[in-house]
Structures are given as C-alpha cells and as structure tokens.
Design brief:
With 213 residues, the chain is mostly beta strands. 0% of the residues lie in helices and 72% in strands. Strands 1-2-3-4-5-6-7-8-9-10-11-12-13-14-15-16 form a 16-stranded antiparallel β-barrel. This is Outer envelope pore protein 24.
C-alpha cells in the first residue's frame, strides 16, 4: 500500500509545499519526503529525506542536501512494571547523539528526558492529562536554567487549541489544529516575542491532505 500526503504552508511572506510518499512493505516502510522550502521565486523541489523504517524498532534517514545519514533506534523496557520508552538518535554528519526516554507512570502521567550526549543539554518534561481533554506540559531546560510551559485543550471532538510560553526566549504561542473528517488537517498558529518592543504577532498556516494510492 502507498500512502501520500501533501502539505502547504504560509509563514509570513514565505509560501512552501512539502510532499511525503510512504510505501508499506510488511514490517518495513520506505518513505521519501520532497520539499519546496519556498515557492515565492519559483519552484525548487528537492528531496528532504529518504527513510527506511521498521516501526517501533529503527529508522534510517538519508538527507541528500547535507549528505548526512541519521540512525534512530527504539526500544522499550520495564521499570517497576511501568513502560520506559527509549530512543537513541545519531547524526553522522553532525556527529551528534541524542538520548530520549519517557516513563509512562499511568494513562494520565508521563515523564520524559532528552539529553545530547557529550553536552550539558538536559530537558525534563512532565506530561499530565486531565480528564482526557486537557494536557499540561511543563518542561525544565537544565542548560538554560529555564522553564517552558504548554497547555492543550481538546475542542469540538478531536480539534486542539494549544498555548505555550518559552521563558528563555520569551516567546508566547497560540495554535489551533483542526482535524478534518476527510484525510486531512490544518493548523493556524500565532507567536509573539515579548522581548521585542513592537510585540507584533507572527502568523502562519499549514494544511495537510493525505490519501492512499
């Protein structure tokens, strides 16, 4: 089975397109992503990545533009009978390794840790789901000694309104994601840098259509 998706976005004065084609072959998936980062001055299509994936096990990404290969391995362990999801990501070109771990305490509570190996970059996030509709996500960045906070609310069924604040950059964000009934979605977002005198909001929009071939 082949699944394709097409996404268009408007970010200020910049308009772009991106397309993804996924070929499912049993336990494996082959995915190619084509991007057009800006169509403002004419089309310039290029492959963003070519990926081979075994869901829940590994992903190998080839990024032609950077001539880079990224390896990602996933596994799950049990800690006090709770699932601990682990992800190891290594970018060969940047020589960067990132470890992610998330401990699912119960359906409403999850703790996640992100660490770039060889650096002091640690991010600790707590995820709390309240009554199945409201999600609170406080995050502490040890390298910046700063807190971030995001709050999401389900509305009109599966639609989501999300507000966020990054204390290190003083960026306040608001996002609305609409899940359409026919294989698609769209997202509208606004952000304000509170450290800038003008505090003029930056608006962007994105629409995605998915279909099977």
């Amino acid at each position: 089975m082949i699944i394709a998706s097409l996404a268009g976005r408007v970010d200020g004065d910049v308009t772009g397109l991106a397309g993804t084609v996924t070929v499912n072959g049993g336990d494996m998936k082959l995915r190619a992503t084509v991007s057009d980062t800006s169509i403002q001055y004419g089309p310039s299509l290029s492959f963003s990545s070519i990926s081979l994936e075994k869901p829940g096990s590994f992903i190998v990404d080839f990024i032609p533009q950077d001539k880079d290969v990224r390896f990602q391995f996933m596994n799950t362990a049990r800690v006090m009978d709770k699932p601990l999801n682990l992800t190891y990501t290594h970018s060969r070109g940047a020589n960067k390794t990132v470890l992610d771990g998330s401990l699912v305490i119960d359906p409403a509570n999850k703790v996640s840790l992100n660490h770039a190996v060889g650096s002091n970059n640690f991010r600790l996030k707590y995820n709390y789901l309240h009554k199945g509709n409201t999600t609170f996500e406080p995050t502490y960045d040890f390298s910046k000694n700063a807190w971030d906070l995001a709050v999401s609310q389900r509305v009109f069924g599966d639609d989501v309104v999300r507000a966020s604040y990054q204390s290190s950059s003083k960026i306040l964000g608001l996002e609305y994601r609409k899940m359409r009934s026919v294989n698609g979605s769209f997202k509208v977002s606004a952000s304000v840098n509170l450290s800038e005198p003008s505090k003029f909001p930056k608006l962007s929009g994105e629409s995605t259509l998915s279909f099977e071939m």
